[in-house]
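INTERNAL TRANSFER SHEET
From: sequence group
To: structure group
Subject: FAD-binding oxidoreductase

Please process the attached sequence and return the structure record in the designated field. Keep the field labels unchanged so the import script can parse them.
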Amino acid sequence: MDLIDRLVSAVGAEHVLTGRDVVAGYEADWTGRLRGRALAVVRPGSRDEVAAALVACAGAGVPVVPQGGNTGLVGGGVPRGGEVVLSTVRLAALDAVDRTSGQVTAGAGVRLAALRAHARAAGLDFGVDLAARDSATVGGMAATNAGGLRVVRFGPMRAQVVGLEAVLADGRAVGSLAGLEKDSTGYDLAGALVGSEGTLAVVTAARLRLVPALPARATAVLGFGSTEAAVAAVPALRGPLLTAVEVCFDDGVALVCAHRGLAAPFRRPCPVYLLVEYAGEHDPTDQLGEAVAGIAGVLDSALATDEVSRRRLWAYREGHTEAVGALGVPLKLDVAVPPARAAAFEAAVRAAVAEVAPGARLVLFGHLAEGNFHVNVVGAGDEHALADAVLRAVAAEGGSISAEHGVGVAKAPWLHLTRSAAERDLYAGIKRAWDPGGVLNPGVLIPR
Ligand SMILES: Cc1cc2nc3c(=O)[nH]c(=O)nc-3n(C[C@H](O)[C@H](O)[C@H](O)COP(=O)(O)OP(=O)(O)OC[C@H]3O[C@@H](n4cnc5c(N)ncnc54)[C@H](O)[C@@H]3O)c2cc1C
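Return from structure group:
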């Protein structure tokens, strides 16, 4: 029996896709920049079917690329050439919310929007939110340790995962969905899978912490004369109600306004903008107003409490990805530096782009409380040289080459900038221990 026949007997003929036109949607990433040919796409509907599909691929010596919502931005979820794509879309079971523990068990293929709606229906919420919420899956978010808009309040995916269930390349199932908040029985296997980008095992389900629903919100946009002034404002904003501190710059906001036909936030443009959100059980407008009043260097500000006005303010920040995409396919680099180094890093990035790609268009935005910048460059020319310059600037500031998107294939060549030789040896040893045959996502995270 050849591999396709084995996959068909594992999951059924309708869930093994080989036709070029049907497979094409699984072969390119969200930006269209990263793509490759898949041998086939297999869509198992249960943990046992995942195991059977993996055993078939391992037996045939064909590598497997796990894929969730395919919103990843570093090429870890799309084939490089000749792999089987294992899509988790059918692993979409969502158990009833366990109110006693404040947790829920979700299949790896459950979309973030569905998870949040499910939690909200039970009077709770899920702590991670990101703009790709309609497509990004629980498994993909765990595998990339996704962050997003509310990390300052609830932490990244790592902080939400209580347990994972996963299947090794040899078909054995590991992990627990019991939801034990206390368990000091040795190594944290679920912790090892968070951020593993499909290189160690295929996550089939997750036990997730839920957070209180925060029905009352207040949002402000603040204009500053410099990034230093915006960074200096962060301590005054911190507190139990703080839910978001997003940063963007005058050129990006002007681009969003032109793209979406929005009026500028203020009569006079400001070099730097912060979008700040407070959320709680009761209206946090007064607390946000007080925090803002205590900040020096605010050139202008707007405060919104009703949903329509809040959405209007968020549009200046959330419109960036779409507006940049309308200019062309950008080189996207998601990085983090210690927040206190954010202004120095911004200056270094602007200098690096001006030197390496003088004609390129740079648009920066990000999550300032975590020092997380999204560096978008349209018309970069020599993308490798530009990525090299930007990621070296990150390393020089003591930062991370990946804040929340993962390393994938796109950044694997630069892992050495922020992981020592001893740490890279450990990475390789962990990979060998979980996946000795090298079946799962070769070339992702750990350079070939
Ligand atoms: C418009 C837009 C906005 C975004 N905003 C954010 C943001 O604010 N914060 C953020 O963190 N990310 C953001 N992202 C990136 C992306 O949404 C996240 O990386 C997300 O976690 C990917 O989930 P996915 O289901 O699409 O995974 P995929 O793209 O399908 O896969 C991502 C990686 O996870 C692996 N993987 C997927 N499923 C499994 C599984 N079940 N088991 C093992 N490995 C698996 C894949 O092999 C791959 O390496 C954004 C993306 C877009 C397009």
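Handover comment: Residues 342-356 form the longest helix (15 residues). The first strand starts at residue 16 and ends at 17.
Transfer complete.
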